[in-house]
Amino acid sequence: MDRSKAIARVRLDSNGDHIHGRGLLLVDALSDRWGTDLYHWGKQVWGELKCEATS
């Protein structure tokens, strides 16, 4: 959850030596799809992972 109402987007620049701002890059790489739900207090980012059944 995030109190900011700015739409979440993947940052492709490394932004120098800063260590934050890369979370959505991981979410995008690992999930089948992801999105942002906006609320009156801010936003929540969600992701869906595909699981294959094993026998």
Walk me through the structure.
The chain has 55 residues and is of the alpha+beta class. The protein has one domain. It is built from 1 helix and 2 strands. Strands 1-2 form a two-stranded antiparallel sheet. The radius of gyration is 14 Å and the shape is flat. The termini are far apart. The model has no long low-confidence stretch (mean pLDDT 82).
Q: Can you tell me the residue ranges where pLDDT is under 50 for at least 5 consecutive residues?
A: none
Strand segment tally: 2
**SSE-based structural type:** alpha+beta
Order of helices and strands: HEE
- Range of helix content: 10-25%
Rg over CA atoms, rounded to whole Å, is: 14 Å
Strand content: 25-35%
Lateral strand order in the biggest sheet: 1-2
Q: Compute the average pLDDT.
A: 82
Distance between the termini: 36 Å
**How many strands, which pairing sense, and closed or not: the largest β-sheet?**
2 strands, antiparallel
Count of domains: 1
- Count of DSSP helices? 1
> How does the overall form come out from the CA principal axes?
flat
Indicate the topology.
Layout: H1 23-30, E1 33-39, E2 42-48
Antiparallel strand pairs: 1-2
